[in-house]
Structures are given as C-alpha cells and as structure tokens.
Specification:
The complex is a heterodimer of chains A (238) and B (289).
Chain A (H helix, E strand, L loop, with lengths): L35 E6 L4 E6 L2 E3 L2 E4 L5 E5 L2 E7 L1 H22 L5 H13 L8 E8 L5 E6 L5 E4 L1 E5 L2 H11 L15 H18 L6 E8 L2 E8 L4
Antiparallel strand pairs in A: 1-2, 1-10, 2-11, 3-4, 5-6, 6-7, 7-8, 8-9, 11-12
Helix pairs in contact in A: 3-4
Chain B lengths: L24 H4 L31 E6 L2 E7 L2 E3 L2 E4 L5 E5 L2 E6 L2 H22 L5 H12 L10 E6 L5 E6 L4 E4 L1 E4 L3 H11 L6 H18 L6 E8 L2 E9 H31 L11
Antiparallel strand pairs in B: 1-2, 1-10, 2-11, 3-4, 5-6, 6-7, 7-8, 8-9, 11-12
Helix pairs in contact in B: 4-5
Classes of the chains: A alpha+beta (238), B alpha+beta (289).
Chain lengths: 238, 289
C-alpha cells in the first residue's frame, strides 16, 4: 500500500488527534488481504508469480494461500486485493471458460480471456471487484503475453507487470532490469527463462524485506509450450 | 449474476436496459427505492467509500487550422501517486476521419471508445452515410446522459475532416462545446497557455505539429500527472496520419543543451563587446576566462 499523507495537515505539520466522541463505522463491503503478483513475458515463455501470504490488518490468516490460478494449459491469472472478490472472480472466469469450451469446442486464448475479463470487471463498474489482476500466458503464436488490469477493467498487453501491495516497489526494478529503462550504454539482451526466474526470486525476496503484506512463500508458475510448471520458494515469515 | 453490456440504440435506454449496474449494500437500504440510473436523487458512490482510486490525470489537446486538425496527448496513466502505465494510448481513431482524445478513468474511456466505434459503424451501415462530427458528439452526449450522476468523468474531444476540420468537447455531465482550440485534463491550463500564444489559422503543418508538441511538453513539465511520451495525430481530408511516438525525456535534455549553448554564446558576445568598448590593455577589465 502507498504511504498515506493522512497523518499530516495541509501545512506539513503532523495532525493532532483528539478524542471526538464515539464514532460509528459503516459496514464496508471491502477488506484488503494483501499479496503481490508479478508476471513476465519472454520470447516463448511466460511467468506468473505470487506470494502466498493472506493477511488482514495486523493478522495473518494463512501462510499458504497462493494467488495464481491456472485457467487453461496456456494461461494463468494472478489476483490480489480482496480475497473474497478474488475467489468469486476466478469462479466466474472458470465458469465462462467452460461455457466457451462447450459452445465453441476449443479453449479460450489468452487474449480472449483478457478481453472477457475486462467486460466482466466493467459490468461491476459502480460496485467494483476489488481485485488487481494480471494474466500471463502464451498467445496464439506461442510468444509470451502479459495482460494487466485495473479494478474496473481497463487493460493492456505488457511485457512485465507487478500488481498488489508491493507493486510500487517491484515495478521500478522490473523497468530497470527487463525494460532497461534509465540505463545508458548497456547491451539489451533478450530475457532467457533461467534469468527471468532468478530475477523474479530476487525481486520477491526484496519485496518481502520491505512490505509487511508480502512474505511466507513464493509460488512461480512457468508457462511454456510444454505446459505449466510450478516452483515454490520460501520467503521471510516475519 | 453478471452485468453484461450490450450495444443498443437510443430506444433501448429504458428501465430494463442493459445499463443496469449493481450498487453496493448501503445505498440499497433505502426503503422502496430500486437502484436505477434515472433516479435523480440517487447519490453516487462518493470517492471516500472506494478503497482505491481509478486512473486519472492527463494532458490532451486538439486544434484546427487551415490544413486540418492536430490531436496530441501525453501517455501517462496514473492512479493516485503511482504511474500505472507510462505508455498508454490516449488518442483512439474511430474511423478514417475521426479521432477521439480521452481523459478520465481508463476503463470508462476504453468502453466509450468501443461503444462509439460500434455505434458509428452501425449508423453508417443503416443510413449509408457517415455520421458527422457534430452528430457523433451528440450521439456520445446522449449515450453518456444516463451516467450523469455517477462520477465517471469521461471527457472526449472529437475531430473530423469531412465537413471541414472540427473539434468538439463532450463531457459526461452533458456539456458539448465546439471551438478552435480545446485542451482537456490536469495539464490543460499549461497547454492552453502555449496554444493561445502560438495558434494562427494560417499555420503550416510543421508549425502546427511543433506547436502541439511544445504544448504537451510544457504541460508534462509542470503537471505531475502528465508525462512520458507524446502522441500526435494529424487529420486531413485524406484521413488521419500518426506521427511516431516521441519520448519527452530526450526533448528535455535537448532543450537544456540549447539553453546552455545560448548562454555560452551570449557570454562570448558580451565579452567581445566589452573587450571592444574598454579597448586594449585596460587593467579594469573584470573578465576572468
């Protein structure tokens, strides 16, 4: 989560807190369950990685709740945000995939899933799913594809994207290492699978150091034309 | 239960239309009130109740001149303090002679561009002629009307070249404006300043392109929510042409170079001038190197 400026007043001084009497809290339909998701697309592979911590406020609900969900043989979705909405959204997507399979006799492609998810999310434009989605998979030509979404369905195809609580920490590092941004006179080699996996592990270890909602374990789903392989790496548990 | 959007004509805008969105629980608790879009006393979901901010903040502009229309925009999509996407595309071609600049929530913009493209195409197929820019603006304004109360903040400027160059501003609260220069977004005040200064009807294409580029560059320099690259479209009677996307970081460094060069030249001139004035061997000369 971004550092908020709520503790500071307009003149830069810290706000003084007084007891103002009993406060009534309205029921909020949303909760924030933390978690970070990352996806990287290569020449002929895609990676979707997420941590496995499920938290709420100061507590940890579970240390083994991964946020990557396998949709088809070539597509994995990572959802972080409010866990209730993540579960419902993935159930809806899986149902729609089955319907498509039964009526069209083929699996949905990554691009089609992305377009469908955009309309599903926008359908709840005025009571959104509090989920930050990233889809990683192979497109029809076998190249890696990453689609990143905002909670109401705006999406686009990327090469790499981080989402969730530590996204603001991970995204600049990915910009530098994969996008070669802000680097001068450097040879821009294409990303290999081994290098990408190592980079993702390093990046999550760094995120776990500084973000309280990220940690416990890292699950990486590696999508190639041979199928989907999973790797689990332990992270800090504190 | 999902709310599927279905493209429809104006006659389908009634109570049972596909524009039926689900609203959060605390608003449904009012007695005998069905949450419909046409309830004028229906309060919108205030920004405080949402746990996240949607993408906003931009600089887009458009102006007409003797050789068509120029549309320019930056490419930064921001979400409160974070830049969600540094390379988003904010200018969308609708058809060969119409281009739409968008500002506001990205998801709303994507949807309305899609809707507008489809409605324009349907109109063309039904009536065997293309809808004019004014017609497109009116259509869009009518389609946005049910969403007046909701804070969708969707603003589009439309451009056309068929009935002469035209620029239109359409806002989700119903405002429609036509003009010569229009700029929208958080960086628009800065863009207006540059445009008002340099705009003439008789500009050449190169001058117009340079003006648009400069306006977006200045706006991105001062506005935190605009930046990264600049997209430029030029629309004439032959259709739209897209200029390559340009990174404004390079422009910033080039300008610094130019400025430092100018300062050096001025220094040299001043030295030469004062050297001539004071004459040779003047021990009171204050220049040192």
């Amino acid at each position: 989560m971004m550092i908020s400026a709520r503790a500071y007043g307009d003149n830069g001084k810290m706000k003084e807190h007084h007891y103002t009497g009993p406060v009534e809290h309205k029921f909020s339909p949303y909760a924030f369950n933390g978690g970070t998701v990352l996806a990287v697309a290569g020449e002929d592979f895609a990676l979707v990685a997420s941590d496995t911590r499920l938290s709420e406020g100061y507590s940890i609900h579970s240390r083994d709740s991964p946020k990557c969900y396998k949709l088809t043989d070539t597509t994995v979705i990572g959802c972080s945000g409010f866990h209730g909405d993540c579960l419902t959204l993935t159930k809806i997507i899986e149902a729609r995939l089955k319907m498509y399979k039964h009526s069209n006799n083929k699996s949905m492609t990554s691009g089609a899933i992305a377009a469908m998810l955009s309309t599903i999310l926008y359908g709840k434009r005025f009571f959104p799913y509090y989920v930050y989605n990233i889809i990683g998979g192979l497109d029809e030509e076998g190249r890696g594809a990453v689609y990143s979404f905002d909670p109401v369905g705006s999406y686009q195809r990327d090469t790499y994207k981080a989402g969730g609580s530590a996204s603001a920490m991970l995204q600049p590092l990915l910009d530098n290492q994969i996008g070669f941004k802000n680097m001068e006179n450097v040879e821009q080699l294409p990303l290999t699978l081994e290098k990408a996996v190592q980079l993702v592990k390093d990046v999550f270890i760094s995120a776990a150091e500084r973000d309280v909602y990220t940690g416990d374990a890292l699950k990486i789903c590696i999508i190639t034309k041979e199928g989907i392989r999973e790797e689990i790496v332990p992270l800090r548990k504190d | 239960h999902m709310c599927m959007y279905v493209c429809g004509t104006a006659s389908e805008f009634d109570r049972d239309s596909a524009f039926h969105f689900l609203f959060p629980p605390w608003q449904c608790s009012r007695k005998n009130r069905v949450p419909t879009l046409f309830s004028s006393t229906f309060s919108s979901l205030s920004p405080n109740q949402q746990p996240f901010q949607l993408s906003h903040g931009t600089t887009t502009l458009g102006f007409i001149f003797q050789d068509g229309v120029i549309a320019a925009a930056d490419t930064r999509a921001s979400c409160k303090g974070l830049i969600c996407c540094p390379i988003s595309q904010k200018i969308m071609p609708i058809h060969s002679h119409l281009v739409v600049n968008t500002s506001g929530s990205s998801a709303d913009c994507m949807l309305w561009e899609w809707i507008l493209t489809h409605e324009m195409r349907l109109y063309q197929l039904r009536h065997r002629k293309r809808l004019s820019v004014n017609g497109a603006a009116k259509l869009l304004s009518t389609m946005l009307h049910p969403f007046k109360d909701q804070n969708t903040k969707n603003v589009l400027s439309t451009f056309g070249g068929r009935s002469g160059p035209r620029v239109c501003y359409v806002c989700s609260d119903g405002l429609q404006l036509k003009g010569e220069i229009i700029s929208v977004g958080s960086g628009s005040p800065y863009a207006y300043a540059v445009l008002d200064d340099g705009w003439r009807w008789g500009m050449t294409v190169d001058e117009a392109v340079a003006l648009a580029r400069e306006a977006v560059f200045r706006a991105t320099h001062w506005d935190a929510y605009s930046g990264n690259n600049v997209d430029l479209f030029h629309i004439t009677a032959h259709g739209w042409r897209r200029r390559d996307r340009e990174d404004l970081k390079e422009e910033y460094y080039r300008e610094r170079e130019r400025k430092s060069k100018k300062i050096k030249e001025r220094e040299k001139e001043r030295q030469k001038r004062e050297g001539d004035e004071l004459g040779e061997g003047d021990i009171y000369s204050v220049h040192c190197g």
